[in-house]
Design a protein that fits this description.
Elements (H helix, E strand, L loop, with lengths): L5 H9 L44 H5 L1 H7 L2 E8 L2 E7 L9 E2 L4 H14 L10 H4 L8 H4 L4 H6 L33 H15 L3 H13 L4 E5 L2 E6 L1 H12 L3 E2 L2 E2 L3 H7 L15 E2 L4 E2 L8 E2 L11 E5 L3 E6 L4 E7 L11 H14 L3
Antiparallel strand pairs: 1-2, 1-13, 3-5, 4-5, 6-7, 8-11, 9-10, 11-12, 12-13
Helix pairs in contact: 4-8
GO molecular function: hydrolase activity
Keywords: Hydrolase, Signal
Pfam families: Beta-lactamase
Length: 365
């Protein structure tokens, strides 16, 4: 995603605005959270911590983590253990109150929001996209356009051409036919961007408003969605990103309240199509037998992140914006900052290198 530097300054100003308040969604009775679970309170900077030594971590290995993170252009880094902060570092002038963009890590939040719209009966992912946007939203022949369902946008299998000059572009001329929907996996920002429009049409409210009502305000996040070129991007503090990761860890449940349907989350964080086993609903998956990555049609054997827990799933964004979750190990890990190395759209060499270090710190899996 292209992102002029001025957007960061704009984001800081926008995020200082007061949250929208609107009528709450109907309550849902959730399953009881495990006794060991902890959820930070809303409207308070207080957040319980756990000492790494108490968790049995390798203190000597942990001491080497901050210098390495700083060398990789990191601005914020958080590890939650069962919801409590076990490690939190900020670098340079960045602080716990600083906001940063999520880039494509926000796609995972979009998938969650789509699930909420489905739960409320506002959206059907098996419907064709043109049912919400009208025909002609692509330049594909009508018969081919009508093959594309909302589910295809959630799984990156629209069949629209990702090799256009501007992969972010959402005009019909940029959304051109390449293959029948469901027959080709390709990481395509332009096609994904139309999902925001689908959710707005289905719910009848702005995307920012719906996310604030249904997710952000209910779990104590800050932040908002803002436009950068064709892309709608979320920005927040690192702690808000950690809150979102914690919501995913608990499969849509938050401190005794159901935010999203656990059945939807179970689908979102598992393989949703046979083309790329390591991709769910706009969410990256570890521990599968093979994976694909953006900008190539090659399928690679093995797990996406061999050094990470096999059950890990992740929201991954350009320039190494990361929200990782391992439910088996009670871990949520957040990294925000500039690119750790070369610019990549989602996964990068940083992922595996980081988890190699965390494996030494935490003690393996």
């Amino acid at each position: 995603m292209t992102r002029p530097l001025l957007f960061c300054a704009l984001l800081l100003a926008l995020l200082s605005c007061k949250k929208n308040t609107h009528d709450d969604p109907p309550p849902v009775t959730p399953p009881v959270a495990p006794a060991a679970a902890y959820f930070p309170p809303s409207g308070s900077p207080a957040w319980e911590t756990i000492a790494p030594a108490t968790a049995g971590w390798n203190s000597a290995a942990l001491d080497t983590l901050a210098p390495w993170l700083q060398s990789k252009n990191t601005k914020a880094f958080i590890i939650l253990k069962n919801g409590r902060i076990a490690y939190e570092k900020y670098f340079g002038t960045f602080s716990a109150d600083s906001n940063w963009y999520w880039a494509s890590a926000g796609k995972t939040a979009t998938a969650l929001l789509a699930g909420i719209a489905v739960q409320e009966g506002r959206l059907n992912i098996d419907n064709k996209v043109s049912q919400y946007l009208g025909t002609g939203w692509t330049s594909a022949p009508l018969a081919k356009e009508n093959l594309i369902t909302v589910k295809h946008l959630l799984t990156m299998t629209s069949g629209l051409d990702d090799a256009v000059a501007d992969d972010d572009c959402t005009t019909p001329a940029c959304l051109r036919y390449r293959a029948d929907a469901g027959t080709r996996w390709a990481y395509h920002n332009g096609a994904h961007n139309k999902l925001h429009d689908v959710i707005e049409v289905a719910t009848g409210v702005s995307y920012n408003q719906y996310f604030a009502q249904r997710v952000r305000d209910r779990i104590g996040m800050n932040g908002l969605w803002f436009m950068s070129g064709y892309n709608l991007i979320y920005g927040s503090t690192a702690r808000s990103a950690a809150r979102f990761g914690l919501l995913l860890q608990h499969m849509g449940q938050w401190s005794g309240t159901s935010i999203a349907d656990s059945g939807w989350l179970a689908t979102q964080v598992n393989s949703t199509q046979a083309l790329n086993a390591s991709y769910g609903y706009l969410t990256w998956l570890n521990g599968k037998s093979s994976f694909m990555v953006p900008q190539t049609q090659q399928t690679f054997p093995g797990a996406l992140l061999p050094q990470a827990p096999a059950d890990l799933f992740a929201a991954l964004g350009k320039n190494d914006q990361k929200i990782y979750v391992s439910r088996a190990h009670g871990l949520v890990v957040v990294r925000l900052g500039n690119a750790a190395g070369g610019v990549t759209l989602a996964s990068s060499g940083f992922d595996n290198e980081l988890w190699g270090k965390l494996r030494t710190v935490i003690g393996g899996w």
